[in-house]
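Why run this: before we spend reagent on co-expression, it is cheaper to look at a predicted model of the complex and decide which construct boundaries make sense. The entries below are exactly what would go into the expression plan.
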Amino acid sequence: MRTFRRGLILSAGVTALALTVAGCAPADDTAEPAAPSEAAIESDGELTLYAGRDEALIAPLIEQFTEDSGIEVNARYGSSSELNALLLEEGENSPAQVFLSQDAGALGSLANADLVSRIPADLADLIPAGFTSEDDSWIGVTGRARVIAYDSEKLSEDEVPDGVEELTDSEWSGRVGFPPGNASFQSFVTALRVLEGEEDAEEWVEGISKNSPVLTEKNGATLDLVNSGQLDLALVNHYYWYEDAAEVGADAMRAQLKFLPGDAGGMVNVTGAAILAGAEGDPDALAFVEYLVSEKAQQFFVENTYEYPLLPGVDAPEGLPELDSLVNPELDLSDLESLEQTQELLAQYGLL
Amino acid sequence: MSQRVDERGADLAVEPITVEPVPAPAGKRPPRILLILALLACAIASIPLVYLIVRVGSSGLDDAVTVLGRPRVPQLLLNTVSLAAAVTVTSVLVGVPTAFVLARTRIRFRAAWTVLAALPLAVPSYLAAYGWLAAVPGMQGFWASWFVLTLVSTPYVTLPVMAALRAGTTGLDDVARTLGRGAWQAFWLGTWPQIRPATLAGALLVCLYVLSEFGAVALFRFPVLTTAIQQAYGSSFNRNYAAILATVLVLIAMIIVIAEQTARGRARRRFGAVTGIARHRIVDLGPWTVPAFALVAVVPALAVGLPVAVLFARLFEAETLRALDPVELGQAILNTLVLSIGGAVIAVILALPIGALAARYRGRLVRLIESLGYLALGLPGIVVGLSLVFFSLSVLPSLYQTGFVLAFAYGVLFMPKAIGAIRSATAQVPTSLEDVSRTLGYSALQTWWLVTARLARPGIFAGALLVAVTAMKELPATLLLRPTGTDTLAIELWSRTDVSAYGAAAPYAAALILVAAVPAFLLSGAGRGRTDGTSA
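The model came back. Tokens follow.
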């Protein structure tokens, strides 16, 4: 017993020591990884990028950037959510200078934590309102439409509803799938709340939750369900279909897409980029962000990821409806308070 | 020598008995240096816990109550616990008979079957799940998760039980038979107590693994705590919510670890140590030959054969093949090897004092240290990864995003897998030998190095292998902690499957399984004919 107590004191001591070290260390070390803030008003020809997008899709663009600008890029790839969690954990000590994110919410959470620096106004103004941040804390890069993917062997395009409202009808019971934890699905629910009002939105969420929906983890996996004939309708992002089609060939796709012009269910989410606080004024970081919204890079996205370009004047990929025809309620997509309300709504009906 | 005896029929296979001996009586105090080293290892293993406490503490009690009050939480909890229980039970039900067939029967091609039994260890759960999903598109939910997780985790039971059976005796069964018991009852009374600690240790690893598993359950759309934690990071950007759910997971893990300790302790008290010379009978299968073949074939075929076949089918089906870059592949293999071996070394260094302490001493402090050592295994990799980001930036910022921190993370994450192996191996070294060494004037440390560590070496090595094979497949912590620009096989595989480029993923999947098959092969002990210390 005495051994036990002594041991307990010892272990408490060790833990306390570890915590003390943990507690006091950051103060001495902020200068080390985040040094560029003062020194790097001049270009050092190097850039550390956290890229929350697939390496195979983005790496060629980065190579092109390096070729054009002479700036070397150290790219760290990961999913946007993991990199976002990483950036929040690293805080001011992050080695990252630019974060390229799949979705606006992640960028909003960094802005909330004061971890980003402002995008210069002349750059930020290139992207139309509603597709970028309201306070220039990040900049929109590409757009992705929400669509209904349907099983073309069971349904014709006409039979697929023109909007999400009908999906709560008993006709579609057990036939609709979506990833409720996914950021772009949640943005759509936010859009629904803004466009239709809180009451109607709640009615829809309640209705869909009682209509035996098929709940999934990710957009891609949801589309796979439709493509293999296990699910009739899926609420997903449009470009997943094009990625799958690139892998197996467009003719082999059993799933087909229906765009929903004018409906909240067809709203547009954006991907974006932020310059981190430690890289404020860094010309390399700025050059990269500038490049992302240049005509060349926007054209690259159109051709390789089938996303909507956000720079006016660059045409959308062939076969897609005009960006203007889709709903853009001038949402602040990175408004986390609104996102939290959406999540509470989904949680209330057991979807989260 | 024993291998030859074994192959000839082996009625005379003679070895010292290796039921875990009774540790020193409760009153005996561990040497101070051992205790300090064990506490240090324990403090390192507790980094993720400290991190969770900090996170939950900063969110406040109100948040915790709100989060736990969500309508979906009880469902997540129920799903998590029932899946862990179901997989553990079936792994034992399949693993123990498989081990018996491989260790105690005259089955043909035994060496090959033994390697195959260990091979599922080389298959990441997300890969097995993907393979099954592609083959049987309707698979989803509880049963699918249960099925695939049982397949990939059965070796955690098979391997230690096989080692215990190889080292054990059928002498007690014979006594029971002469006293008029039937064959099954004799097994239950004579052999089961000898393999029970190994079974429990294996079951513990399976159970904790299922608690922390994310890949397969996500693919099968079975909502559990880990998927909710991932979602919390992914969409609400609410780290505190994730931390609260992770704390719930830690509490479940703690209950399981304590339950295993209690069960192990009870077994020990009831049966005590058997000393003397062990011999065990090798059984002729007779009419059981075909069922035995089926049993030893089914898990490897379903866990390894099918997913690999499906991936290669996709490779040939794929319309556009991304060119395979051999340099990239070679670099990924090299990185995977270096990092996982580094992780294994760190895990063994951390596990040695804890294992040695648990093998020889009792008492509440020892139990506390051992159970804290196990907890990281019940946590999802993303939580452990973030805790080490926090830790290394605070304590060792110059090492942040270096391979060292990643290997260190593997060490912390998978140290529990080495603790069991080291504990059993150390327990099997007769204390009398250590006493002799001490009377010859060697210090405690010298004795440990010259006698204990040398005799326990196979077990220590087995622990290292188990860590290495798991670290090779690790994904979430690797994504967070790797040096920028460094890719492992698991990361290359992930980056391809994440965009549905399954065809392009196939070579990486094959490379990962091949590389991980090496430690799996060594673990099976097939190369040596019989293993002596691998009872994890």
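Residues 34 and 278 of chain A are 6 Å apart (CA to CA). Chain A has two domains: 43-143+269-321, 145-267+339-348. Bring this page to Monday's planning discussion.
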